[in-house]
Amino acid sequence: MTITSDFFLGARYCCILGYPVSHSRSPQIHRLFAEQFGMALRYEKIPVALGALSQAVDTLRAAGCCGINITVPLKEEAYRLAAASAPQAAAAHAANTLWWTMEGELIADNTDGTGLCRDLIENHQVDLRGRRILLLGAGGAAAGVIKPLLETAPEQLVVSNRTLNRAQALSSRFAEYGPIEWAAADARFERSFDVVVNATSSSITDELPVLDKSAIGAQTVCYDMFYASTQTPFCAWGQDVGAAHSFDGLGMLVEQAAAAFSIWHGLRPDTAQVLAAMRLG
Ligand code: ATR
Hints:
With 281 residues, this protein is of the alpha/beta class. It is 36% helix and 20% strand. It contains 10 helices and 12 strands. The strands form 2 sheets. A 6-stranded mixed sheet has the order 2-1-3-5-6-4, with helices on both faces. It has a 6-stranded parallel sheet with strand order 9-8-7-10-11-12, with helices on both faces. Helix 7 links the parallel strand 8 and strand 9. Helix 1 crosses helix 9, helix 1 packs across helix 10 and helix 9 crosses helix 10. 2'-monophosphoadenosine-5'-diphosphate binds next to helix 6.
């Protein structure tokens, strides 16, 4: 990675690191946010392999970078690298947002869960208070959203995963934050859920996570944290088995970006405008 600090003088400089990262839509989102404030922003995608984050972060700091987004597979490494973490990153043991204090201390946050909750609550008007939520998956993506979901005061959050012991471990780890339980991937449910969130990586390979349709009722909102230009298999399945709505994760992507933008620049962008632009491609 070659960066010269002079190059970025005059514009705020941020970036997203991951591997691979070429698919990321974050540069487009952050540029649209910056335009709302007449801000000169340079936002780059930089491929960084596992184990190489520390050196990349140091180089970026020297180049005048003020904020870094982190995507797979670096979220856990980013959390470990930071000198201090905001509560959401500390609970998730993973970070998607890094920045430095005036003293040069590296701080980590995780805005994924905030992004998910804002998209559900604000953009889709899904009230999560007192609701029953099923979360599919027990990897880093799931861990990143559990604390914020529990903070919305649901009646119950159930974690279900193909590998059961990972769901059990995650529900034990987050028990201090609220009513969380686990279920086997093939469980049959006596009551359907109000919201079912797919946090597995199944959509990446165009697969469906195993889920009994007893989880879905006429009131159920299916939410896939993944997004694609065509409907994801999980969203299509939700529709087929009679869910009230199926939403993909594009709104979550825009909302987590807005939360990072606010942290770095102290400005809250209008996400509706940007989400509409992103839907157009
Ligand atoms: P991430 O950071 O994206 O969460 P991860 O930690 O590798 O990535 O976790 C991937 C999650 O998706 C896991 O919960 C995984 O289930 P296992 O723990 O059983 O591996 C889940 N997953 C991936 N592909 C899946 C599929 N086809 N069906 C169901 N679950 C799947």
